[in-house]
């Protein structure tokens, strides 16, 4: 009961990449970089196991960015001649690659990372991929001319890779969809259908992580305008409850998402974000247990999974480690109290 996991990413070691950045530059190259990524993955697994995390990830140690780590192995994308576009409904601007030809996978994307992680932990292993809607919101389309068509093209590629990851021994595939809190109507009209394509014939449980965005000042500024209660998810949680996605990851700690909205995710395992990734203040075990307790008013206890609000890649490594220890200790405390 109250199994623990993380949203996905962890800080990279300083010897591997620039610290405290959402999109860090590598400090190694060639064979040294490949070895460094493998070593960093082992450290990420060890950290999670020591903290008592039940469903571990590779910490996304081999990826510069949660979206572009996947796109780097996709043909049809021009990374050389980037253009500036508005991201998340023009919330902020970014220089992004261009889709200039039909999309195809250039072989496997994450086989090495998944197999390496699988070989070095006996715990359940979760692997994260960007969701179709978030991918198309992070690219300039100069080929398809239709956002939905391009999203479904990516969904088919994600399905190809996710089924291979399950064959590699991955126990849960999670799709990260921060764009789900921006394009509410699109989520209902095609976003969830695109996820269904991505999980077709998948031999392991699927999850979707949604959040209001972290690690970028524009996101913090935007959230400050949303008021005391963030009820936007009220529009999409019923659709997610009716979907074939097995698990939904939601931020809860220090977020203004009303806990009663969690009750709309009927039948789903709910990842309760009990760790705030936007502050260096380390939660106590009591804090984590209290967040779980609040969720129990609306989510059956057997459906609660304790997690982090979002990825921890931009955080200081020591703070991230302390927060993981708090997550593990808090879930253990909640088990004693509420089981």
Report on the structure:
- The protein is an alpha/beta fold and 339 residues long.
- The protein has a single domain (30-64, 105-135, 144-338), classed as Alpha-Beta Barrel (TIM Barrel), CATH 3.20.20.
- The protein has 10 helices and 10 strands.
- The protein has helices at residues 30-50, 68-71, 111-119, 132-136, 147-167, 184-198, 217-223, 237-241, 285-296, 317-338; strands at residues 55-56, 74-87, 92-105, 124-130, 140-141, 172-176, 206-209, 247-251, 269-273, 304-307.
- The strands form 2 sheets. The chain has a 7-stranded parallel beta sheet with strand order 1-4-6-7-8-9-10. A 3-stranded mixed beta sheet has the order 2-3-5.
The SS-based structural class is alpha/beta
- Low-confidence parts, pLDDT < 50 over ≥5 residues? none
CATH architecture: Alpha-Beta Barrel
| The CATH class | Alpha Beta
Strand order, biggest sheet?
1-4-6-7-8-9-10
Largest sheet: 7 strands, parallel
* Rg computed from alpha carbons, rounded to a whole number of angstroms: 19 Å
Strand count = 10
Query: Can you give the helix content as a percent range?
Result: 25-40%
Q: Give the helix tally.
A: 10
State the gist of this model.
By secondary structure, the protein is of the alpha/beta class. It has helices at residues 30-50, 68-71, 111-119, 132-136, 147-167, 184-198, 217-223, 237-241, 285-296, 317-338; strands spanning 55-56, 74-87, 92-105, 124-130, 140-141, 172-176, 206-209, 247-251, 269-273, 304-307. The strands form 2 sheets. A 7-stranded parallel β-sheet has the order 1-4-6-7-8-9-10. Strands 2-3-5 form a 3-stranded mixed β-sheet.
